[in-house]
Write a structure and sequence with these properties.
With about 450 residues, the chain is mainly alpha-helical. It has one domain (about 10-445): Orthogonal Bundle (Hydantoin permease), CATH 1.10.4160. It is built from 18 helices and no strands. α8 runs parallel beside α12 (about 245-275) and α9 crosses α12. The N and C termini lie far apart (about 45 Å). It is found in: Membrane. Keywords: Membrane, Transmembrane, Transmembrane helix, Transport. Pfam families: SNF (PF00209).
């Protein structure tokens, strides 16, 4: 591992950074609106089951590959099977996937920066401001979206250029605790609203009447998106990990935190939506249009909305750090260039590549790809195709290509877990994970 990349200073730092990679738009922006569109509790239950039975073993697999080789994503696959270079394309696909993900993720991050500034200034909750019109203005005005995109890109470049310990780890160590503290405040306020229990019931009571094959695919994609697995981001993160850290404990902590945040997000959002008789299936604009209208109807709504937007911003940034880091780590070993210069270069390229998605609600609104806007088409490609395929390839690689003793030794190193844990992991990765991913993917392809 290059000195340019460094190591985590502590197990806590690694867990918080990994949780930060997972807890982002997936848990706070995407899960609530997809849950709302898919009928509520049943979708959330399927998501949790997928996260435990498929997401957790996949998370462990990326940890094994990263720490076992002490290398970033592309090099890790090369080191394990140096005579089979084709497998390195799993890592390359991860780098490409992270780049594509950033081209629409950064756009939403820009919206959040704009909204956070307006929220802190108290300019969102105003009788003269219509939340839907404000959302349309922000997303539909090229200058506003591009300024937001630029600010979000600069924030990422600044943190990533500082390195693993001084940048990602330090940012995660203060952002993640603040995120949870703000969440608790918001959940308590949401649950004390009149009519809140209807939202709790919608979110937690499983009603399978609205579950379709597409909803199951969305739940699987949400599990991968929510844990940041499939693009080898956590291969890179775990390559900075010391050998005495327990991978099962670390992965379990990350999964627990991810499910907890997803749970808290539902409890913070759906009680508010139902208390004010709003539409839970509002789509991607749920957080930007529905919630401001709801917060505007409660005492101290400006304060709670500003807190929510800051929470949203923290989660989005900690998640985007991992996307940038896998790209930086992939090239820093090959190019004789400093981390600062490389990060700035990648930031410029991401910004330019994200412009079409940023303008897909304005000057490029008439451009469609298979009936979807540039933004939505990129989201679908990444979340519903590339992530499942990436996870399927990693599951095949770790079971059928990687040496069994290498997997077992790395999985159990620094851990009190024994043969039973390894056997369970191997059964899940051999029979459950690839079969479920394949069935869900085939079902999706048959629908199109």
């Amino acid at each position: 591992m290059s000195e340019k990349n460094g190591q985590w200073s502590s197990k806590l730092g690694f867990i918080l950074a990994s949780a930060g990679a997972a807890i982002g738009l997936g848990a706070i922006w995407k899960l609530p609106y997809v849950t709302g569109q898919s009928g509520g509790g049943a979708f959330f239950l399927i998501f949790v089951l997928f996260t435990l039975l498929i997401g957790l073993p996949m998370l462990l697999s990326e940890y094994i590959l990263g720490r076992g080789t002490q290398s970033e994503a592309v090099t890790a696959y090369k080191k394990i099977v140096p005579n089979k270079p084709t497998w390195a394309w799993i890592g390359r696909m991860g780098v490409i996937g992270c780049f594509l993900l950033l081209t629409f993720y950064s756009v939403v991050g820009g919206w959040i920066f704009i909204y956070s500034g307006l929220g802190v200034a108290g300019a969102i909750i105003d009788p003269a401001v219509n939340p839907a019109e404000l959302f349309d203005k922000i997303t539909g005005t090229p200058s506003i979206t591009l300024v937001g995109l630029a600010i979000f890109t600069l924030a990422n470049v600044f943190v990533i250029s500082l390195g693993v310990q001084n940048g990602i780890e330090k940012a995660s160590k203060w952002m993640m605790p603040l995120l949870f503290a703000i969440f608790i405040v918001l959940v308590i306020r949401a649950l004390t609203l009149d009519g809140a229990m209807a939202g709790v019931k919608f979110f937690l009571w499983p009603d399978f009447i609205h579950i379709t094959g597409r909803a199951v695919l969305e739940a699987l994609g949400q599990s991968f998106f929510g844990l940041a697995v499939g693009f080898s981001c956590l291969v890179t993160y775990s390559s900075y990990l010391k050998k005495d850290v327990s991978l099962p404990n670390s992965a379990g902590s990350v999964v627990l935190l991810t499910v907890l945040v997803s749970f808290l997000a539902g409890l913070a959002i759906f009680p508010v939506v139902f208390a004010f008789d709003l539409e839970p299936a509002s789509g991607p604009g749920l957080l930007f249009m529905v919630l401001p209208a709801a917060f505007g109807q409660m005492p101290f709504g400006e304060v709670f909305l500003a807190l929510f937007l800051l929470l949203f911003l923290f989660a989005t940034l900690t998640s985007s750090f991992s996307l940038y880091e896998i790209i930086v780590a992939a090239f820093i070993e090959k190019w004789n260039i400093s981390r600062v210069k490389l990060t700035m270069l990648i930031g410029v390229v991401v910004f330019l590549a994200a412009i079409p998605a940023a303008l897909s609600s304005s000057v490029l609104a008439d451009v469609s790809i298979f009936g979807k806007s540039i933004f939505d088409a990129t989201d679908f490609l990444v979340s519903n195709l590339m992530l499942p395929v990436g996870n399927l390839l990693i599951s095949i690689f770790i079971i059928h290509v990687v040496n069994k003793e290498f997997v077992k030794t790395e999985l159990l190193a620094g851990s009190k877990m024994g043969q039973g844990y390894y056997s369970t992991y191997r059964v899940l990765m051999t029979f459950i994970v690839p079969v479920v991913i394949t069935v869900v993917l085939l079902n999706m392809l048959l629908q199109y």
